Amino acid sequence: MVLDWIVFAGLRPRLMVLPGTEGMREYRDLRFHAVAALKGSPLILVVGLLSGGVVAGLEAIA
Fold first, then answer.
1. For residue 41, how many C-alpha atoms fall within 13 Å in the half-sphere facing its CB?
2. Which among 12, 36, 34, 15 has a CA at the least distance from the CA of 24?
3. What pLDDT digit, counting tens, does each position of 12-42 carry?
4. Are the CB atoms for 4 and 37 separated by under 8 Å?
5. What is the pLDDT of residue 51?
6. Which of 3, 4, 40, 58 is the most buried (most CB within 10 A)?
7. What is the 3-state secondary structure of the chain?
8. Which residues contact 37 (CB under 8 A, 6 or more apart)?
9. Sign of the torsion angle spanned by Cα atoms 15, 18, 39, 34
């Protein structure tokens, strides 16, 4: 989340800005980024646990 704040809210490189959204105020809104990060955290946790389980299972077989 801190990197998100630094890159999107602070630096905003042209490569990271979607065409047509250049002037959106959400790019500088730290609360918007914090809420979005909290919404995505459970998904990151689930994907990490699943992929870790697959790798551990494959290593146990080999």
1. 8
2. 12
3. 778 777 788 888 887 788 888 889 889 989 9
4. yes
5. 97
6. 4
7. CHHHHHHHHHHCCHHHCCCCCCCCHHHHCHHHHHHHHHHHHHHHHHHHHHHHHHHHHHHHHC
8. 1, 4
9. positive
Comparing 13 with 46, the larger pLDDT belongs to: 46
Q: How far apart are CA 1 and CA 7, in angstroms?
A: 10
Q: What's the token pair of residue 46?
A: 């689930």
| CB 1, CB 37: distance < 8 Å | yes
Task: Give the other-Cβ count within 10 Å of 22's Cβ.
Answer: 10
- The two tokens of residue 31 are 């609360």
The token pair that represents 2 in the structure block: 């801190």
